[in-house]
Design a protein that fits this description.
The complex is a heterotrimer. Chain A is 18% helix and 23% strand. Chain A is an alpha/beta fold. In chain A, the strands form two sheets. Chain A has a five-stranded mixed sheet. Chain A is globular. In chain A, 36% of the residues are buried. Chain B has a single domain (3-368), classed as Cytochrome-c3 Hydrogenase, chain B (Orthogonal Bundle), CATH 1.10.645. Chain C has a two-stranded antiparallel ribbon. In chain C, a hairpin with a 3-residue loop joins strand 1 (274-275) and strand 2 (279-280). In chain C, helix 5 (93-130) packs across helix 6, helix 10 runs parallel beside helix 18 and helix 13 (289-304) packs antiparallel against helix 15. Classes of the chains: A alpha/beta, B alpha+beta, C mainly alpha. Chains in contact: A-B, A-C, B-C. The interface between B and C is large, with 46 and 39 residues. Strand 2 of chain A pairs parallel with strand 6 of chain B, so a sheet runs across the interface.
Chain lengths: 188, 369, 430
């Protein structure tokens, strides 16, 4: 099945769904209109053979990463000749549409069709939540916990939404672009 | 459960310092006698924030980070990051580089599976296969050392190709190794795979049905051990895998032994692929021209995934046009494979926990990233 | 860096030229690829070393045997001397007997201690060569013979740690309770045809009774350590050893029926003689009954000593060492010593019950001239080799499989074996 076939199939079932503006290269990427669409969409896709939740992640589009989020300031550009000023400020790329949103990304795979669909959902940054897919795909369990831990996004209906990777005393969600590291007992 | 029944229960910590957790995994086990009634995996002891670190490093620097996820088989890690970045940059590695990438990844798969065979033997209580497997793994690592100077963290596959062409007599040494290695696979089968005690310990233990395996998004030999023939090398070929003949090995019932034996058979398939690559290794450059020292790919998103030794390793890369990835997400196979632990351990005996944990073959560097 | 300083050379210029490929030549020439080893197996030092080690083992057996044999002769002389001395001085014979018993106890004790030195080194070498390693080579010069001695010194010097959660007294007492019955069990063990510390009419029963006591020490160790893994190990040990006592005891019942006595020297003398002038009348060669009993006894002995494939009480990969996790220094080495003492006990019992004790395997002159203690030791060492061989080849069983093997396989077959032995006695050996 080509990407267009899948897209037309999806659009026949869910007319509101359209192609995302930024496509994941080589794969079909669709944009969900609202978070209520996610569960019916995922359930339908699962029924259609896309029963393998390959990835669930999220991206924070606030802006360039805050350098105070790092314990040690990394040398940003080691290719500069010696003696040059080390660049520690991350620069905003010109013309990129930074915006205060968090975009959820899911990818589901059909093993029989050898096809892969990326689902995208944009939510405002201060109320970042999406329905949990644990009921449909068990693999969503830890991936959603990971995203909750690192990005501070919430998944409604997740039975056990706890921190998973970072230590309990770590404050904040490191992968948020405005994350600032708070010194703890393990810092120098 | 009444209070009288719960008082018979014992809580034990399996890890983080335990010989069989293969790293710093901790599983909180509640046991009744020898039977598990609750299992809570606890990870994160090795979390190094790779995804965060990548956001302030140039793309070339990020290849170095990738080596540290699955340090047992680092070549596919390098490869998957380079594939994703190359998609963003719109460049393509030359034919010889592609062939070398395939060869190194398969060789690394052999090394990784050899480590698995050895350590799984130790988990089950047989010490001898470990040394046998390491004898051969040592030779693979020596080959890698000859190739790129490193034995574990290679940083060999670079953006646009590979670091360096193979040295002069390297391919002949590789052929020598393959000739030596093929009969050794039968030796492992005699010593471990078809040992009655080993089979009794692992067959029918830790059964994962195909539906469960797909729902938990297992990948690699864990998925194929359950009988699901899904392999990224076949389903979504990269680096010219579609040109090589090999079989996707699948198990029958999804037991620990099936997962183990899938890996043993995969080594044979890897040898097959390496031989084909050796037979028709194209000439030419090993690095694409025009890869900048500080590449700044145009804004966009890319997803690349490869069949690493432990499963389907994917990278989701978002670029804002700057010199470092705006967001990098790693779809780590070990992380997803490990998640099934909390469901499957319930009802097992302690010995089976070790057999199951060993058979899903995790690397904590990849789980915690 | 101020702006007035001269511009430094660029980073790239100061880097040395890449030398990666130069390294390959060195690696290629220095590496001994195993393919060459397989092509010319006997020309390689490793195999010569193996042959030399085998010769060393044989010499060691002979030397050990000579020591024991000489001791017995010296012992008879010493006993006679002591008797005459006591008679001359008017000392009571009770005192003489007491001193004599003390001497014998010391000798048996040293057999156990020296066995620890010898068999740990031997196990290291055997396991190393099974695993395509070489094992200890440095300490002492000849194949690292002094490695165990140095390890013993190290264990003496190690800090003896009692965990805070442990029950101090029980923790300290457990190793003693493990090793004491083990030493006592050696009293009637035959080191030659007649060479034993004590001749007991109920020798076999006595050994089994004492060997079974050690499990109490293991359970105490597991419980007193204050560690849940140790507790599990202790419980597993209790279940396992108590279960395997049964087939172990029943498997020698046919032997006792054939010999008509529990006395070990009678059992050995019942195996003297040859069928058709050449095949020894050892119990292991009695058709069906002998082999089945031998195998059951061997398997149960391995299980009794907590060694792979029956090492679930210590199970490094599951219970992190089991009952001896929390032990260190000499307390730990006492456990280790007891394990090897039980291996030696099992080996001597196998040689005594099934392999004709000190009898020669062939009825011809050069073999029959060899003293009985040499044969006994050689057979025991052969059996010990089997113990090591099994340990370093097989994986570990699970708890329930272990119990299945015992209750569903070994025990029924040992009963059937007793019935078969009864038929032999009724129709063949009457």
């Amino acid at each position: 099945m080509t990407q267009d076939d899948i897209l037309s199939k999806i659009q026949a079932e869910f007319p509101k769904i359209e192609k995302a503006a930024v496509q994941v290269k080589d794969y079909l990427t669709v944009k969900l209109a609202s978070k209520d669409d996610l569960i019916p969409m995922a359930a339908w896709l699962k029924k259609e053979g896309f029963d393998y939740l390959e990835m669930a992640t999220a991206v924070d589009y606030l802006g360039p990463v805050n350098m105070k989020g790092y314990i040690r300031q990394p040398n940003f550009n080691a290719f500069l000749p010696g003696g040059a000023k080390i660049e520690v400020e991350s620069a905003a790329a010109a013309g990129y549409p930074y915006r205060p949103v968090i975009e959820f990304v899911w990818s589901v795979v059909s093993r029989t069709d050898r096809a892969r669909v990326f689902l995208k959902l944009e939510v405002p940054r201060d109320a970042a939540s999406a329905p949990s897919l644990v009921g449909l795909f068990k693999s969503a369990d830890w991936q959603e916990r990971e995203n909750f831990d690192l990005l501070g996004v919430r998944y409604e209906g997740h039975p056990n939404l706890l921190k998973i990777l970072t230590p309990d005393f770590l404050q904040g969600h490191p992968l948020r672009k405005d994350y600032v590291h708070v010194k703890d007992r393990y810092d120098e | 459960m009444s209070s009288a029944a719960t008082s018979d229960r014992l809580f034990i910590n399996l890890g983080p310092q335990h010989p069989s957790t293969h790293g710093v995994l901790r599983v909180g086990l509640t046991i009744e006698g020898e039977v598990i009634v609750k299992a809570v995996p606890d990870i994160g002891y090795l979390h190094r924030g790779t995804e965060k670190l990548a956001e302030v490093r140039s793309y070339h620097h990020c290849v170095v980070l990738t080596d540290r996820w699955d340090y047992v088989a680092a070549m596919p890690n390098n490869l998957v990051f380079c594939l994703a970045t190359e998609k963003l940059l719109g460049i393509k590695a030359p034919a010889r580089a592609d062939a070398l990438r395939v060869m190194m990844c398969e060789l690394n798969r052999v090394a990784s599976h050899l480590l698995f065979v050895g350590t799984y033997g130790i988990d089950i209580g047989a010490f001898t296969p470990f040394l046998y497997a390491f004898r051969e793994r040592e030779m693979v690592l020596d080959l890698f050392e000859m190739l790129c100077g490193a034995r574990l963290t290679y940083n060999y596959i670079r953006l646009g190709g590979v670091m360096i062409d193979v040295p002069a007599d390297w391919t002949s040494k590789l052929k020598e190794f393959l000739e030596y290695f093929k009969p050794k696979l039968d030796e492992y089968d005699q010593l471990l795979s078809f040992n009655p005690i080993f089979m009794a310990r692992t067959q029918g233990v830790g059964l994962v049905t195909p539906e469960e395996a797909v729902s938990w998004a297992l990948s690699g030999p864990n998925l194929r051990g359950s009988g699901v023939a899904y392999d990224a090398r076949k389903a979504d070929p990269y680096c010219g895998y579609e040109n090589y003949e090999f079989d996707v090995v699948v198990g029958k019932e999804g037991s620990c032994w099936d997962r183990y034996f899938c890996r043993v058979l995969e080594m044979r398939q890897s040898v097959r692929i390496i031989e084909q690559v050796l037979a028709r290794l194209p000439e030419g450059p090993v690095m694409a021209s025009g890869v900048a020292k500080v590449p700044k790919p145009p804004a966009g998103e890319a997803y690349a995934h490869v069949e690493a030794a432990r499963g389907d390793l994917g990278i989701h890369l978002v670029s804002d046009g700057g010199m470092s990835p705006f967001r990098m997400h790693v779809r780590a196979p070990s992380f997803l494979n490990l998640a099934i632990l909390q469901e499957k351990l319930v009802g097992m005996k302690i010995s089976d926990v070790i057999a199951f944990l060993g058979s899903i073959d995790i690397v904590l560097g990849e789980v915690d990233r | 860096m101020t702006s007035s300083s001269p511009k430094p050379a660029s980073v790239k210029a100061s880097l040395p030229e890449p030398v990666l490929n130069d390294k390959n030549g060195i690696l290629m020439t220095n590496r001994r690829w195993p393919i060459e080893q397989w092509a010319r197996p006997w020309s390689l030092p490793g195999y010569r070393n193996g042959a030399m080690m085998l010769a060393g083992i044989v010499l060691g057996i002979l030397a050990g045997g000579a020591l024991i044999g000489e001791l017995s002769k010296w012992g008879d002389r010493l006993y006679a001397l002591m008797g005459s001395f006591a008679a001359a001085k008017g000392i009571s014979t009770v005192a003489v007997e007491a001193v004599w018993i003390a001497i014998k106890v010391l000798i048996v004790l040293h057999v156990i201690l020296l066995n620890g030195l010898w068999s740990i080194w031997w196990e290291r070498k055997i396991s190393a060569h099974i695993q395509s390693r070489v094992g200890p080579t440095y300490a002492g010069g000849f194949h690292g013979w002094a490695q165990t001695i140095l390890d013993g010194v190290k264990l003496f010097l190690k800090e003896d740690i009692t965990p805070a959660a442990a029950d101090q007294w029980v923790h300290a007492l457990a190793p003693a309770i493990v090793i004491a019955p083990c030493i006592a069990a050696f009293a009637p063990v035959l080191f030659g045809s007649e060479l034993a510390a004590a001749r007991l009419d109920v020798g076999a029963l006595y050994i089994f009774a004492f060997a079974g006591i050690s499990v109490i020490g293991v359970v105490m160790a597991g419980w007193a350590s204050g560690n849940k893994y140790s507790l599990l190990g202790g419980l597993r040990a209790a279940a396992q050893i108590v279960s395997y006592e049964l087939p172990r005891g029943f498997s020698v019942v046919p032997v006792i029926m054939f010999a008509g006595s529990l006395d070990l020297s009678v059992i050995v003398s019942a195996q003297s003689g040859f069928w058709w002038g050449m095949a020894p009348r050892w119990f292991v060669f009695y058709p069906v009954v002998g082999q089945v009993a031998f195998l059951i006894f061997l398997i149960a002995s391995i299980a009794e000593t907590n060694r792979t494939p029956f090492d679930i009480p210590e199970a490094e990969s599951e219970l992190v060492g089991g009952f001896h996790t929390e032990y260190s220094g000499m307390k730990w080495s006492v456990f280790f010593l007891a394990e090897y003492a039980y291996v030696l006990l099992g080996s001597f019992l196998l040689a005594t019950f099934f392999l004709g004790g000190g009898g020669s395997p062939l009825p011809w002159t050069p073999f029959t001239l060899v003293p009985s203690w040499v044969w006994m030791l050689a057979k025991a060492m052969l059996m010990m080799f089997v113990f090591l061989w099994v340990r370093w080849t097989l994986p570990r069983l699970r708890v329930d499989q272990l119990m299945d093997v015992n209750w569903k396989f070994l025990l029924p077959w040992s009963f059937a074996n007793i019935a078969l032995a009864g038929l032999y006695l009724a129709f063949w050996l009457k």
